[in-house]
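Ticket #4471: structure output looks truncated?

Reporter: J.K.
Steps to reproduce: submitted the chain below (318 residues) through the standard prediction queue, then opened the result file.
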Amino acid sequence: MRALGAWLLLGAGCAASAQLQFRATKSVEQTVCNETVILPCIVTNLALKNIAVLFVKWKLEKKEFFSFDGFGNKTLISSNFSTAELVSLSHLPLGMASLSISKTQAVPGNYSCEVTESNREGETVIELKYGQASWFTKTENILFIVFLFFAILFYWSQLCFIVLTYETTRQKKICLIIAGVILSVVAAVGCSLVVVDANVLKNQVGLGLIVLPTGILVPLQYFILQIVLESDRSPLAIAVAVLKLVGYLIAVIGFFLCINACPPKCGAVVIAGLAIMTFMVAVGLICVIIRGYNKKSHQLPRKAVEEPLNDAKGVMLE
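Returned output as attached by the reporter:
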């Protein structure tokens, strides 16, 4: 009777340990910056820890596409998953059966990992999701657009004051208007691309269309202040243009740092450069407004003096 009881206890213990157990991972999210996808599959209760008695099988939606037979050291891979491979063959006896797949071949769905050790087996399911997120954060996207919007708005405000208040050639006004239209259209396209979800190339092109064309604001601002200050080499015009150029260079440096890193880590540098440029455009707008009002105030007394003089001349002639 004792022998029978011991045999029953031993059989129950073996049955309880027949099922392999896995470290729980419900899902994995693929981001735009990952070149490969790692599907985790880690067994926590391997007993023999011998690769020769291990068999690993991976399925997508219950359709097998990868298998590894440790006894014969053989791997079978479906043509649709030619880049699939075990993350670490040397760590397989320790329970690591995780799979690596290139981003182009790893399609979203439910992946199942089945591991067999001698007469024990187990299975775990991992869902692969694709994260739909912009290359930049929402805050960065908002600041890119806001600073660019105000820079262009301040430029058009200056241009309106120039057209209505200052005397300059029609050709110069047309050139300023055409430059503003081109910058506005390019900026609109850049803003639409920079907020596209999960598309690194479009986000990079969008940032480039936001940053690089804004350099035209440097000579335009200098040209406008020359008209306003009626001087070819005004220290104020030079100072504003130089500071705006500094801001532009900071934004350009930030842009090139961003496109060389994924995820980008220098969005703040781009924002700082655009902020400096926008501030200097605002300074230029203030100069244009103040100069315009001063010009009007000087013209009114002059007219008031000229009218009596003209009346006096008329009386003398009579």
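Triage note (M.O.): checked the attachment and the full token line is present. The first strand starts at residue 27 and ends at 30.
Status: closed, working as intended.
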